[in-house]
């Protein structure tokens, strides 16, 4: 059994509804059917592709699903919710990224865990902090050491009603 953290993002086709629906789908991947989800955050898109702002969150659950099988399951959820991969960092109905898989460190062609960009992305770090303020990454870095005032200014936490 491993505790996993998954980043969620959406900026098309009712982003809040997309995240809500994805959370329901993620529950089915949890060994005990339990899922913890951070508050939703609004953030500007990455890259230079003109598009709407994103809604982002992080979910935590435990699973016995192997990392690559979990990646396949996450991509299936994205596809079921209309994800189309045409432009790198382009607009999307749903993006699910496997951030952490227990204390595992993987670097294989289809999957890098911990996620390669998680240490610098405010829309990942702040929701992750909401779920696991005492988290220490597999490399030994304390999550709190990555949080800066600049990161906090880059996203806006939405209220409990999202």
From TrEMBL:
Top-level taxon of the source organism: Bacteria
GO molecular function, a single term: 2-amino-4-hydroxy-6-hydroxymethyldihydropteridine diphosphokinase activity
EC number: 2.7.6.3
Matches recorded under PROSITE patterns: HPPK (PS00794)
GO biological process terms held by the UniProt record: folic acid biosynthetic process; tetrahydrofolate biosynthetic process
Stretches assigned to the 7,8-dihydro-6-hydroxymethylpterin-pyrophosphokinase domain: 88-99
Pathway: Cofactor biosynthesis; tetrahydrofolate biosynthesis; 2-amino-4-hydroxy-6-hydroxymethyl-7,8-dihydropteridine diphosphate from 7,8-dihydroneopterin triphosphate: step 4/4
Entry-linked CDD domains: HPPK (cd00483)
InterPro entries in UniProt: Hppk, Hppk_sf
Record key words, sorted: ATP-binding, Folate biosynthesis, Kinase, Nucleotide-binding, Transferase
SUPFAM superfamilies: 6-hydroxymethyl-7,8-dihydropterin pyrophosphokinase, HPPK
UniProt family annotation: Belongs to the HPPK family.
Role according to the record: Catalyzes the transfer of pyrophosphate from adenosine triphosphate (ATP) to 6-hydroxymethyl-7,8-dihydropterin, an enzymatic step in folate biosynthesis pathway.
NCBIfam families according to UniProt: folK
Protein name in UniProt: 2-amino-4-hydroxy-6-hydroxymethyldihydropteridine pyrophosphokinase
Naturally occurring in which organism (per UniProt): Shewanella loihica (strain ATCC BAA-1088 / PV-4)
């Amino acid at each position: 059994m491993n505790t996993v953290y998954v980043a969620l993002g959406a900026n098309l086709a009712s982003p809040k509804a997309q995240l809500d629906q994805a959370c329901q789908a993620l529950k089915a991947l949890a060994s005990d059917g339990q899922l913890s989800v951070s508050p939703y955050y609004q953030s500007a898109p990455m890259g230079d592709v003109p598009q709407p702002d994103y809604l982002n969150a992080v979910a935590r659950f435990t699973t016995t699903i192997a990392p690559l099988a979990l990646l396949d399951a996450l991509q299936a959820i994205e596809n079921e919710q209309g994800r189309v991969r045409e432009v790198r960092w382009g607009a999307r109905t749903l993006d699910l990224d496997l951030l952490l898989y227990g204390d595992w460190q993987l670097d294989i062609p289809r999957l890098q865990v911990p996620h390669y960009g998680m240490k610098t992305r405010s829309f990942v770090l702040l929701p992750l902090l909401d779920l696991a303020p005492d988290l220490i990454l597999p490399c030994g870095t304390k999550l709190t050491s990555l949080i800066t005032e600049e990161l906090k200014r880059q996203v806006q936490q939405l209220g409990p009603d999202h």
